[in-house]
Give the backbone structure.
Amino acid sequence: MLDRDDFLGRVADILEVPDVTPELEFRTVPGWGSMMGFALYIMLEDEYGVKITPERFRGLKTLADLMSEAGCIQ
């Protein structure tokens, strides 16, 4: 299993916020846009080896959803 805090820290950097929780609906973050979504998608693929379809990614709502896809401890 991957480290929860490391994952959340990487996501906070991408979303340009100081802190995030698994319950956060990441698309509601002020300034959310396609570039942030793409960065999260690439992070899952490059850093966690997760291959999901764009359609599946669009169905994810919370950081807990992303963590589950990446196999992180929640």
